[in-house]
Write a structure and sequence with these properties.
This protein has helices at residues 26-31, 52-60, 68-71; strands at residues 10-14, 34-39, 64-67, 74-79, 82-87, 105-108. By secondary structure, the chain is an alpha/beta fold. It has one domain (10-108). It has a three-stranded parallel β-sheet with strand order 1-2-3. A three-stranded antiparallel β-sheet has the order 4-5-6, with no helix packed on it.
């Protein structure tokens, strides 16, 4: 992917290795900046995932970050160029600037 012809924004990124310090490098994120990033991680895990470094890289690139430990189930639906994210708990402060849509559901336009 990194050596291929495609560059540009991604609609969705499933963050690798639970958001470890080596996941989603700056070079990768600069080439493929995601609109939405999902980190699959258990609460209070002994590895400290996701790491502050990984989260910082995602936030600096402008991704809306959803995490299983804070948001519960993260359900992503893409249809007709619309990306919708629904969660089963919590609220991510990064999505406060989006238009009003049903509670615990967030809409994005890639």
């Amino acid at each position: 992917m990194a050596s291929g012809p495609y560059t540009g924004p991604l609609s969705l990124l499933k963050v690798t290795h639970h958001g470890s310090s080596t996941s989603s490098t700056t070079i990768f994120l600069n080439r493929f900046p995601p609109k939405v990033a999902v980190v699959q991680v258990g609460a209070d895990n002994s590895y400290g995932h996701p790491t502050p470094e990984a989260l910082d890289r995602l936030h600096r690139i402008g991704a809306k970050v959803f995490r299983n430990d804070e948001n519960g189930d993260v359900i992503v639906t893409i249809k007709d160029e619309q990306l919708d994210v629904a969660v089963t708990k919590g609220f991510q402060s990064q999505v406060e600037d989006l238009p009003a849509i049903p509670a615990n559901s967030y809409g994005f336009h890639p």
